[in-house]
Design brief:
The structure is a single chain. With 367 residues, the protein is α/β, with parallel strands linked by helices. It folds into 2 domains: 141 residues, Aspartate Aminotransferase, domain 1, CATH 3.90.1150.10; 208 residues, 3-Layer(aba) Sandwich (Aspartate Aminotransferase, domain 2). 40% of the residues lie in helices and 14% in strands. Strand 12 and strand 13 form a beta hairpin. Helix 4 crosses helix 11 and helix 5 packs parallel to helix 11. The mean pLDDT is 95. Bound molecules: pyridoxal-5'-phosphate.
Length: 367
């Protein structure tokens, strides 16, 4: 068979699909910019500038069982997580980042032709994973202030047409850091759908809805160790699921989805909560300082954020050009091509020194 014939065997919807564009790897960017890593301020992916707890490296060095498959039931981890999340272990499942769990949830509910609801602008993974599963994504754009348009979502179910099975809402939302209120969530939970609240950034602000899961058979909350615990590179997240859903998820997830190193890193992180929480407090303080600094820059209009990043409208100049200008000076920020965001840049909160430098470079750009 030639490549064309093989191509004809590939699912036509995937053959035609646009690839998901993740950010360019750090090493690649350093090489492209011709700058050493220590001269680059990477505030483009909402990572934790402090990295993991120092106990993680010790735990990884000590761990004796890398040659043995890890526990598919995450027994020890779920037990340890119970106290941190405040929800029984029977509601907890871990994954290779919360990205993997979003995928498993979508595969559990969605068949080709089914629909899910997405509220853009938001994290791009929901429509991407939905389309891989052959699902249609119904977009209910956020309002002008980027809050969720609950009324428009309710209207989708009121007209008696296609009834989307899943509704995805991030709180705090990426890219703006706005949150879903308890009242909005209550209205969504009244719909005949499973509501997936992605709380990847909840340690930085907003209400944690995990404790509501045991009372609601249609609420899923996604959490992660990538942001507050600085474990993005080890890929470990978890979900809080109703008991009517979690058993089915365990049936279809990859048995050894969370590798041994990630499991050891989670346990070490949960044993060093004071250090990690102190870092989160510093980042939250820094977010407010960065916000004030950004407000004083005439060509930027920052959105108030409950997360570890700040979205800024760029006024009177090209945002993509600004991003490239900052990049040449070693400051990496996020720019989007999406229509409602093409005049924005998103800046993650760094260390005090990094934020100082980011503000200085942005001020110099004004000249
Ligand atoms: C809203 C949101 N959810 C989930 C993730 C991914 O989390 P994880 O690293 O656990 O896959 C991100 C990462 O940027 C995010 O912004």
């Amino acid at each position: 068979m030639n490549a064309e014939q093989v191509g004809a065997l590939i699912r036509p919807d995937i053959f035609e699909m646009e690839p998901y564009t993740p950010i360019v790897p750090f090493e690649v960017l350093c090489a492209r910019l011709g700058l050493p890593a220590d001269q680059i301020i990477k505030v483009d992916a909402n990572e934790n500038p402090y990295g993991p707890s120092p106990r993680v490296a010790e735990a990884l060095a000590r761990y004796p069982y890398y040659h043995i498959y890890p526990d598919p039931n995450h027994t020890v981890l779920r037990e340890a997580l119970e106290a941190y999340v405040g929800v029984g272990r029977e509601h907890l499942m871990l994954g290779t980042g919360s990205d993997e769990l979003l995928d498993v949830v979508i595969r559990l509910f969605v068949q080709p032709g089914d629909a899910v609801v997405n509220c853009p602008p938001t994290f791009g993974m929901y429509p991407f994973l939905a389309s891989v599963a052959g699902s249609r994504t119904l977009s209910v754009p956020r309002k002008e202030d980027l809050s969720v348009d609950v009324k428009a979502i309710e209207a989708l179910y009121a007209d008696g047409g296609l009834s989307p099975k899943l509704v995805f809402v991030a709180s705090p939302n990426n890219p703006d850091g706005g949150v879903l209120s308890a009242e909005q969530l209550a209205r969504l939970l009244a719909l005949p759908a499973v509501i997936v609240v992605d709380q990847a950034y909840v340690e930085f602000g907003g209400t944690d809805y995990s404790p509501l899961v045991p009372e609601h058979s249609n609420l899923i909350v996604m959490r992660t160790f990538s942001k507050w615990a600085g474990l993005a590179g080890l890929r470990v997240g978890y979900g809080v699921f109703p008991t009517g859903i979690i058993g089915h998820l365990f049936k279809i997830k990859q048995p050894y989805n969370v590798n041994a190193a990630a499991q050891a890193a989670v346990l070490a992180s949960l044993e060093d909560l004071e250090t990690l929480r102190e870092r989160v407090r510093t980042l939250v303080r820094e977010r407010e300082r960065l916000y004030q600094g950004l407000q004083s820059i005439g060509y930027l209009q920052p959105y108030p954020s409950q997360s570890n990043f700040i979205l800024n409208r760029v006024l009177g100049r090209d945002a993509a050009e600004l991003k490239r200008g900052l990049e040449r000076r070693g400051v990496l920020v996020r720019h989007y091509r999406a229509p409602r965001l093409s005049d924005c840049i998103r800046i993650s909160v760094g260390t005090p020194e990094q934020n100082q430098r980011v503000l200085a470079v942005l001020r110099e750009e004004a000249r």
